[in-house]
Write a structure and sequence with these properties.
single chain; two-stranded antiparallel ribbon; globular; 340 residues; alpha/beta
Length: 340
C-alpha cells in the first residue's frame, strides 16, 4: 500500500515537472527567441563611420559662357608691339577686346590706340626674358585681373605668340563647373617640376605659359593671398623659377589643386606635335603658336586642301587659321573669292 502511494507521488511530481517545462517551452518569448535564432542567424555587425557631410542634391548648373565670363591677359613687351602683337590684334583679340588686357613694359600711344581703350597696362617690369621680369609681368597680370573686378568665371593667361580659338576655348571650359577650383592647360614636360622650398626638395605640376592656361574664379580667389600685390615675386625670389612654374607651384603644391591637361593647348615647345596637326583639325585647337628662332622655326602647317594666305604674308599662319575658324570675318572673303 505504501509502495502504491509512493509511486503515485512520484508520478504526480513527474507530471508537474512536465507541465511546468511545457509552459516554458511554449511561452511566446521562448518561441520567438528560438524561431529568430534558427530562421535569422545572428549577423556580424559592421559599424561604418564617415567624416563627410551627407550628400545633398544640387541644382543643375548652366555651364554656357558669354564673352564677359572669361577675362584674358596677354603678356608682351614694347619690343613686340609691331611684330608679335600685330597678328593678335587683327585676329582673335578683336573678338574679346573688351575682356582682354595687354601687359607690357613701356608706353606706346599707337599700340594703345590699336588695342581696346584702357586695356593696355604698363607694368614696372623690364622687357627682358629674365625669370624675374617674367614673374614681374605675371604678377601684374594677376593684379590687373583683381583690380578690374576679378574673374567672373574664368581667367586665361596667354603669351604674345599665341593664337587663341575663342570658340574652341569656350567649348572646353563649358565642360567644367566654374564654381569649382580648376587649373587647365598643358605642361611642357612629362614629369612634375622640382623645386627647392624652405630647405626641402618638392615637386609640382605647372601649365606651360607658352600654351596658355585658364583658372576658375574659386581658385583665383584662393590665389589672392599668395599672388596679389607682389607676393608672386616673393615666391620667385625663394624658388628662382619662371613665371608659369611659380604659378604652378602655388596652385599645385601650396593650394593642392591638380593640373587638368589638354593637348588642345599648343606652343612652339611642342614643335613636332604643332607641325603635325592635320589641317582639318586646326580649327579645333584652343591655342597655337610659332617660332622664328633660327634652327627652331615652326608654325602650324596648312595643306593645299583649303585656301590660305601666302606664307610670306602670313608667316605665323594666324590670319589663315583665323579664317578657318571664323570664315565670316570680312577679310576672309579674299580666300573665298580665290576659291571661286
Amino acid at each position: 500500500m505504501v509502495d502504491i502511494k509512493v509511486r503515485n507521488v512520484k508520478f504526480g511530481v513527474a507530471l508537474m515537472l512536465v507541465f511546468v517545462f511545457s509552459l516554458y517551452v511554449l511561452s511566446p518569448k521562448h518561441v520567438a527567441k528560438t524561431f529568430s535564432k534558427n530562421i535569422y542567424p545572428r549577423q556580424k555587425q559592421t559599424i561604418t563611420t564617415t567624416t563627410t557631410e551627407p550628400a545633398t542634391t544640387t541644382t543643375p548648373y548652366d555651364n554656357s559662357l558669354t564673352l564677359d565670363d572669361v577675362t584674358h591677359t596677354i603678356k608682351t613687351s614694347q619690343n613686340f608691339h609691331n611684330t608679335r602683337d600685330e597678328p593678335i590684334l587683327l585676329t582673335w583679340f578683336r573678338q574679346v577686346a573688351a575682356q582682354s588686357y595687354f601687359i607690357t613694359d613701356k608706353e606706346d600711344l599707337a599700340f594703345s590706340i590699336k588695342a581696346h581703350p584702357g586695356h593696355v597696362v604698363v607694368s614696372r617690369c623690364a622687357g627682358s626674358h629674365d625669370s624675374g621680369d617674367l614673374n614681374c609681368k605675371m604678377n601684374t597680370e594677376f593684379d590687373t585681373l583683381v583690380d578690374n573686378g576679378g574673374a567672373t568665371k574664368w581667367w586665361c593667361h596667354w603669351d604674345d605668340d599665341n593664337y587663341v580659338n575663342i570658340r574652341a576655348l569656350f567649348t572646353l571650359l563649358e565642360q567644367y563647373d566654374p564654381r569649382e577650383p580648376w587649373y587647365i592647360g598643358r605642361s611642357s614636360i612629362t614629369y612634375p617640376q622640382p623645386y627647392n622650398y624652405r630647405g626641402k626638395r618638392v615637386t609640382a605640376w605647372f601649365a606651360h605659359g607658352g600654351c596658355g592656361f585658364c583658372i576658375s574664379k574659386p581658385l583665383v580667389d584662393r590665389m589672392v593671398p599668395h599672388v596679389y600685390g607682389g607676393k608672386l615675386m616673393d615666391y620667385h625670389r625663394e624658388l628662382y623659377s619662371n613665371d608659369d612654374c611659380t604659378i604652378g607651384f602655388i596652385v599645385n603644391y601650396i593650394l593642392g589643386v591638380e593640373l587638368t591637361q589638354s593637348a588642345l593647348f599648343n606652343s612652339h615647345y611642342h614643335r613636332k606635335e604643332l607641325m603635325s596637326i592635320p589641317t582639318d583639325r586646326l580649327k579645333g585647337q584652343i591655342s597655337l603658336s610659332y617660332s622664328k628662332k633660327r634652327g627652331e622655326e615652326c608654325a602650324a602647317v596648312i595643306n593645299g586642301s583649303v585656301n590660305s594666305f601666302p606664307v610670306g604674308e602670313d608667316p605665323t599662319r594666324f590670319y589663315s587659321i583665323h579664317c578657318l575658324a571664323n570664315p565670316d570675318v570680312p577679310y576672309c572673303n579674299v580666300l573665298l573669292d580665290d576659291a571661286t
